[in-house]
From TrEMBL:
UniProt feature coiled coil, ranges: none
Organism: uncultured delta proteobacterium
Protein name: Putative Uncharacterized response regulatory protein SE_0165
PROSITE patterns: HTH_ARAC_FAMILY_2, RESPONSE_REGULATORY
Gene3D superfamilies reported in the protein's UniProt record: 3.40.50.2300, Homeodomain-like
Residue ranges occupied by any HTH araC/xylS-type domain in the UniProt entry: 139-237
Superkingdom of the source species: Bacteria
Pfam families: HTH_18, Response_reg
Annotated Response regulatory domain residues: 5-122
Record InterPro entries: CheY-like_superfamily (IPR011006), Homeodomain-like_sf (IPR009057), HTH_AraC (IPR018060), Sig_transdc_resp-reg_receiver (IPR001789)
GO molecular function: DNA-binding transcription factor activity; sequence-specific DNA binding
KW DNA-binding (keyword) present: yes
Length: 247
C-alpha cells in the first residue's frame, strides 16, 4: 500500500523512457510502470490492471487519448487520468476536461508536477484503503493546515498546536498520511488556488496573498511548476469548460 501502479500512454518512446527513468532514479513510490504506445493499448492495460494513475498523451495514432480516456472511464468511472499534451491549446485542454479526466499537464512535463501527481495518487489509494486506521494527530495537522493556509506553515508551530514534538509530529503524519506535512500543505494550497481561480474573479495577486505567498510572481511560478500551466491559463480553461451534464 506504499506504492502505486502507473500507466504511461504516449506514442513517443523517448517520453516513456524518460518517465520510467525519472521515477526510478528519484525513488518515487511506484511499484509498477505499465507502458502503452497508443490509445487502444492504454484501454486494454487500464481495464486489465486498474492502475492507480494514468498519464495519457492526447495525440496518439489510432485511438487518441481523449477517446481512450472516455472508454476507460466508462468501465472504471473512478480512474485517475491526467492528460498530457504538447499543444498549449484551449481546445485540447477543454476536450480533456469534458471527457471527465482529473487534470491536464502541458509537455514537456515538469518533473515536480509529475512527482506531485504520483504522491497524490498514493495518498488517494491509502485514504481509500478499507483497513486504513485514522490517527488523531493526522486529523489535527489537517485541521491546522486548512485553517492557516494564508500563514507561514512551520512544523514547529503545527507540532506545538498538537502538543507533540516536531519530530514525532512529522513521523506520525508521514506514516499514516502517506506524505510529508509539507507535501500535504502544498496540495491543500494548490487545491484552494484552483478553487479560487475557478469559482471567483479574484485577481491572482489577491489569491496569492490569501494563500500565504509573498508575491504574485512567486505564486505564479509555483503554480506553473505544480500544474504545468499559469494561474490565468488554468482559469481560462476551467471557466470555459462546459458544465457537467445533468438530468
Amino acid at each position: 500500500m506504499n506504492a502505486i501502479t502507473l500507466l504511461v500512454a504516449d506514442d513517443e518512446p523517448i517520453v516513456r523512457t524518460f518517465l520510467r527513468q525519472y521515477v526510478r532514479e528519484n525513488g518515487l513510490p511506484v511499484s509498477r510502470i505499465l507502458e502503452a504506445a497508443n490509445g487502444q493499448e492504454a484501454i486494454e492495460l487500464a481495464l486489465e490492471h486498474s492502475p492507480d494513475l494514468i498519464l495519457m498523451d492526447i495525440r496518439m495514432p489510432g485511438v487518441n487519448g481523449l477517446d481512450a480516456a472516455a472508454a476507460i472511464m466508462k468501465e472504471r468511472p473512478a480512474a485517475a487520468i491526467v492528460m498530457a499534451t504538447a499543444y498549449d491549446d484551449f481546445e485540447y485542454a477543454r476536450g480533456a476536461l469534458r471527457s471527465g479526466v482529473k487534470d491536464y499537464l502541458l509537455k514537456p512535463l515538469d518533473p515536480a508536477a509529475l512527482a506531485d501527481l504520483i504522491r497524490k495518487a498514493l495518498a488517494a489509494k491509502q485514504a481509500n484503503a478499507p483497513d486504513k486506521a485514522a490517527h488523531p494527530l493526522v486529523a489535527q495537522v489537517r485541521e491546522y493546515v486548512a485553517a492557516n493556509l494564508g500563514e507561514t506553515l512551520r512544523l514547529e508551530d503545527i507540532a506545538r498546536a498538537a502538543h507533540v514534538s516536531p519530530s514525532h509530529c512529522s513521523r506520525v503524519f508521514s506514516r499514516h498520511a502517506g506524505m510529508s506535512i509539507s507535501d500535504f500543505a502544498a496540495r491543500q494550497r494548490l487545491a484552494k488556488a484552483k478553487e479560487l481561480l475557478e469559482s471567483t474573479h479574484l485577481p491572482v495577486t489577491e489569491i496569492a496573498g490569501r494563500l500565504g505567498f509573498s508575491t504574485s510572481a512567486y505564486f505564479a511560478s509555483w503554480f506553473k511548476r505544480m500544474t504545468g500551466t499559469s494561474p490565468l491559463g488554468h482559469r481560462k480553461v476551467k471557466k470555459a469548460a462546459p458544465p457537467p451534464f445533468s438530468d
